[in-house]
Amino acid sequence: MNQPSSQVRVRFAPSPTGYLHVGGARTALFDWLFARKRNGTFILRIEDTDVERSSEDMTRGILEAMTWLGLHWDEGPYYQSKRLDFYRETAQRLVKEGHAYQDEGAIRFRVPEGKVTYDDAVFGEITVETDTIENFVLLRSDSNPTYHLSVVVDDIDMRISHVIRGADHISNTPKQILLYRALGASLPVFAHLPLILGPDKTRLSKRHGATSVMAYQDEGIVPEALRNFLALLGWAPGTDQELFNDEELIHAFSLQGISKANAVFNQDKLAWFNAQYLSRLEHEKLVRYLKPEFIKAGLWRDSLEKEESAWFKSLIDLLRPRARVLQDFPRQSCLFLDPNIEYDPAAVEKFLKDPKIKEHLQALASRLESLPEFTLQSTEAAVRGFADELGIKAGALINASRVALTGQSVAPGIFDVMTLMGREKTVARLRI
Ligand code: GLU
Q: Domains of the chain (ranges plus CATH)?
């Protein structure tokens, strides 16, 4: 305990040249999980040395997306753009010690003869002959560091114990190991995460749909669902369990469970996770996610959180089983919250055309008006009893009532709708 050498320190090191995409988010999640699992430290480092391609907006977007996903960092963010002198000094030191040399204003690493072997925690032993590696640039002629220099200098300085990152960096690792050696530093554990592919087995890209994390927020995906989905992109718990809360995920996570095989990004699976979380999220949390959507839809009123909170909870609970995205809640709530309803002409044509059925609805309205109490049971008994008396199928009365009350031919259970709508509104709408 408390020995610095056994301390787990991991970092997520995005380059702010774009939004946080799902691949980056998966890397960040695995780093975060590993840190939590091992009681370690999760460090955020912004690799913004490429001034032309980096922007503060992108950095802000990345931090926001990580926060939304609940990936809280313990240290940082560190900005490489503020550490340039450190990289320059290190490059000079490497020159002085004979590991690097000046070349037309740039500084190049002198690749030694031999081979580099390391044991990747995911991909196993990897060996590269150094004669396949050119003398690579450390410091450009404009005195800006290359990625290899800054990443190794920082990983050493920040005492990173495990470098967990995408498999697209496997080919960079031998060069970086040579730098560790030249700088006299011990190696971290390297764990490269399998690539993420689209359903057509090519590398995931915009062609396959949204790749930016915040686009999923806009689409009404909840962070819990995206996180759970991302956790299973290239990692498996070794059991059939698919739904994990944070605690379970941290407990189950290990580098051994990471697969070498490419992971396939399946939108349907993400949609499934979202539906699962929408049906189970704690009410208060769900309302926090829903409020902006109700506001956007023009359906919010503060009483929903106050006087009407119990009623609002019944409404949300009624809609949970069918909801696929957050926007489904306001969409399906219109009929309760908006005084005007829109009638779907096809539904009217199908279930309300017969003048007889309209007469029946009028009569049903009067019956419901005089019920001693207006509940799930009493409304159902009234509708079924009335259909019996009329000698028609209850279904015909129910379908017609559904269109009259909701404007649609598909809606939640009609008696739930009636009770939630309340007697007054139900009666008024049946008198169509
Ligand atoms: N900044 C690099 C990237 O965004 C990651 C560096 C690393 O993880 O070693 O791809």
A: 5-80+195-267 (3.40.50.620), 83-193 (3.40.50.620), 281-337 (1.10.8.70), 345-430 (1.10.10.350)
